[in-house]
C-alpha cells in the first residue's frame, strides 16, 4: 500500500509539473518582510521553512524568475534556484491532491505505533485518520521543518536517521536544535 501511494504521488507530481511548469527557490537569510514581499508576486508561496537561515518559495516558473530578480534587488544574501520538476508544496499541485485522495480512500490506515511528525501540522500523531488527512494535504501546503524539529526536541527525541542521498537534513538540524 505504501509503495502504491508513493508511486501515484510521484508520478502525478511529475505530470503536474509538466502541465503547470513551476519551480522552487531557496533563500538564505531572508527576513519575514522580504518573504512577504516575494509572496506578493502572483502564484508565489512559502513552501519550506527549513531553518532559521533557509526558506524556500514555490510558484509558476515565470514568477519564480521574477522572484529571483526581486530577491537580489532587496538584498537577500543568497538565492538558489532548485533543480526540481515542479512547484511543490504549492496550490499548483492541486490535481495531485485530487488523484491521491482516490488512492488514499481505498487504503486502510492503522494507527501508528510511534508518533509521526508530518509536514502538514508539525505535531506528533499516531491516529490513522489524522495521518491520512495530513498525508493528503501536505502536497499543497508548506513544510515547517523548524517546527517539526523543535517539537521533536521538546519530546526528547535524541536519535535521527536520515535516509536517502546526502545529509541535507542533518545540516539543517544542527542549525535548529541544541541536541
Summarize the structure.
This protein has seven helices and seven strands. The protein is an alpha+beta fold and 179 residues long.
Description:
The protein is of the alpha+beta class. The chain is 42% helix and 17% strand. The chain has seven helices and seven strands. It has helices at 2-19, 32-38, 61-73, 94-104, 128-137, 145-154, 168-174, and strands at residues 22-28, 45-51, 54-60, 78-81, 116-117, 124-125, 143-144. It has a five-stranded mixed β-sheet. A two-stranded antiparallel ribbon has the order 5-6. Helix 1 (2-19) packs antiparallel against helix 4. It is globular, with a radius of gyration of 17 Å. The N and C termini lie far apart (35 Å). The mean pLDDT is 93.
Which keywords apply here?
globular, alpha+beta, 7 helices, five-stranded mixed beta sheet
Provide the structure class: alpha+beta
Uncertain regions spanning at least 5 consecutive residues: none
Counted by DSSP, the helix tally is: 7
Mean pLDDT: 93
Our estimate of the beta-strand percent is 15-25%
Order of helices and strands: HEHEEHEHEEHEHH
Report the sheet with the most strands, covering strand number, pairing sense and barrel closure.
Answer: 5 strands, mixed
Give the termini distance in whole angstroms: 35 Å
Order of strands across the widest beta sheet? 4-1-3-2-7
| Secondary structure: number of strands | 7
Percent in helix: 40-55%
What gyration radius follows from the Cα positions, in whole Å? 17 Å
- Overall shape: globular
Amino acid at each position: 500500500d505504501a509503495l502504491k501511494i508513493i508511486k501515484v504521488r510521484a508520478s502525478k507530481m511529475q505530470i503536474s509539473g509538466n502541465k503547470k511548469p513551476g519551480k522552487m527557490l531557496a533563500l538564505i537569510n531572508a527576513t519575514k518582510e522580504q518573504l512577504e514581499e516575494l509572496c506578493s508576486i502572483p502564484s508565489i508561496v512559502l513552501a519550506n521553512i527549513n531553518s532559521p537561515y533557509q526558506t524556500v518559495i514555490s510558484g509558476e516558473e515565470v514568477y519564480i524568475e521574477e522572484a529571483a530578480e526581486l530577491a537580489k534587488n532587496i538584498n537577500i544574501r543568497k538565492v538558489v534556484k532548485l533543480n526540481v520538476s515542479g512547484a511543490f508544496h504549492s496550490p499548483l499541485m492541486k490535481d495531485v491532491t485530487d488523484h491521491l485522495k482516490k488512492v488514499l480512500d481505498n487504503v486502510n490506515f492503522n494507527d501508528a505505533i510511534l508518533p509521526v511528525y508530518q509536514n502538514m501540522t508539525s505535531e506528533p500523531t499516531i491516529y490513522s485518520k489524522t495521518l491520512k488527512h495530513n498525508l493528503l494535504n501536505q502536497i499543497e501546503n508548506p513544510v515547517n521543518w523548524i517546527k517539526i524539529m523543535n517539537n521533536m526536541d521538546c519530546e526528547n527525541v535524541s536519535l535521527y536517521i536520515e535516509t536517502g542521498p546526502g545529509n541535507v537534513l542533518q545540516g539543517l538540524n544542527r542549525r535548529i536544535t541544541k541536541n
